[in-house]
Amino acid sequence: MGIKLYYTTVTASREVKSRQAEMMRILESKSIKYELVDISVGIEVRDEMRSKAGDPTAVPPQLFNEDQYCGNYEMFSEAVEADAVEQFLKMA
Question: Where are the beta strands (DSSP E) in the chain?
């Protein structure tokens, strides 16, 4: 599968939870298939997400197309506003 959403099931942050839920809702509303990758299963997965994103402090949610970094919540939100989600996800 191409699109990967790195998220976490273990967070005390309401903001992270709500951003993850919103990204999932928008992807589903646009019928975009994606794979969930839970960074809370191990530090290796979190480090992999940060390495691929090129940001040692990156927090979920983060989107990738295969191993190509697409962006974080703010970038995704801007793409939604501009009606450019497919381009943002490098699908078009």
Answer: 3-7, 34-38, 62-65, 68-72
Among candidate residues 48, 1, 40, the one with its CA nearest the CA of residue 20? 40
Topology of the domain covering 3-89? Glutaredoxin (3.40.30)
Q: What is the pTM of this model?
A: 0.94
**Cα separation of 5 and 49, whole Å?**
10
Cα–Cα distance measured from residue 1 to residue 36, given in angstroms and rounded to the nearest whole number? 10
Give residue-wise pLDDT tens across range 24-74: 999 999 999 999 999 999 999 999 999 999 999 999 999 999 999 999 999
Residues 6+ away with beta carbon under 8 Å from 70: 63, 64, 76, 88, 89, 90
